[in-house]
Design goal:
Blueprint: H1 7-21, E1 49-52, E2 64-67, E3 72-77, H2 81-87, H3 95-99, E4 107-113, E5 127-131, E6 136-140, H4 149-162, H5 193-214
Parallel strand pairs: 3-4, 4-5
Antiparallel strand pairs: 1-2, 2-3, 5-6
Length: 215
């Protein structure tokens, strides 16, 4: 976790705001680097739930993580080129982590001061964001990664616990769902005359049906 007054933490906060407030404008897509020429790539969807430097046990510690109900995203902040190179050495960047589904984010970006990371240095599928001192500029769009749901659930569960979301059963029908037990014949129960007549009738029908089948 970075110091509060560090450039890294400040860029994490800027990245979180960028991820949370983005708006899709189909008329601007052709001018964006994420444009594919065949429709909406979903890379500019806003993420309603965003965390900054959320630490969770046993999972990747993303600088910024976002979730919008259908997709997730991470942004890794790098203030120096050496920091970017060291990031490649993390276990969570390995093929083993990818095969185990332990990499976070269906969409992934690096954010850095302008030109600290070059586009041709990016790992496959990652996007690139530049900070010019005032604004975040979208340089390279990410492609969608699959199999990130395990880590996303870790983040989401940790977020719910930290926000003291009540741990209970949520039933939104608002109805009494008590199920009454069915009446089961108890051989030790003393039956009244009416119950005996009903039971005799049921038995006689069964016996008659079986005798008819035998004949």
């Amino acid at each position: 976790m970075s110091a509060t007054n560090s450039l890294h933490y400040q860029l994490c906060c800027e990245a979180a705001k960028w991820l949370h407030k983005r708006k899709h404008d189909v008329n601007k897509c052709p001018s964006k680097p994420c444009y594919r020429g065949h429709g909406f790539c979903r890379a500019c969807i806003a993420f309603k739930f965003v965390t900054v430097e959320l630490c969770t046990y046993g999972t990747e510690q993303a600088d910024v993580w976002g979730f919008n109900g259908t997709d997730s995203a991470i942004i890794e902040v790098k203030t120096t080129h050496a920091d970017f190179l060291n990031d490649k050495k993390k276990w969570f960047r390995s093929d083993v982590a990818a095969n185990c589904g332990l990499q976070a984010g269906a969409y992934r970006w690096y954010l850095c001061p302008t030109d600290v990371i070059k586009a041709d240095e990016l790992p496959q599928g990652w996007g690139l964001l530049y900070w010019d001192g005032k604004h975040i500029n979208h340089v390279v769009a990410p492609t969608r990664f699959e199999n990130s749901w395990k880590v996303d659930l870790h983040f989401l569960y940790s977020l719910l616990l930290r926000e003291k979301f009540p741990q209970k059963i949520f039933n939104y029908r608002g109805q009494n769902t008590t199920i009454k037990p069915k009446t089961v014949f108890d051989p030790y129960k003393v039956l009244n005359p009416d119950e005996m007549k009903s039971l005799d009738s049921d038995i006689s029908h069964v016996v008659s049906d079986k005798l008819f089948e035998i004949i």
